[in-house]
Amino acid sequence: MKIKLVISVLLSITLFSINANASERQERIYLTQIINQLNAIKPLVIAASLQQPKTNRVQFHYSHYLDAHHKKHNGLAEDLNQIEMSIQNKLSHIPIEPSVLPSIKGDYILHSKSQN
Prior knowledge:
Elements: H1 2-51, E1 65-66, E2 72-73, H2 76-92
Antiparallel strand pairs: 1-2
Helix pairs in contact: 1-2
């Protein structure tokens, strides 16, 4: 009976670790596909910006623009680039094992002599 329990626990742990690795791998696949889609969208953004009539009262901001207070804002193209850079950073990030720090030794509380 104990052997069956141990085996089932070990199989559960193994399946959990396999599933964790599979989901991380799948995440990387999806993120790479998103980057590919963003790269496919960028030429469409440029083409659409060239087709926008300059006489429209309301302009869609395909690229950065200055507001009435001369503050610079991103347009669609810059936002897409930032999204891509963020995904690239995530994909190029190599996980680092957490450091094990030694425990702090010493007494950092000031004791008054009258308490002794």
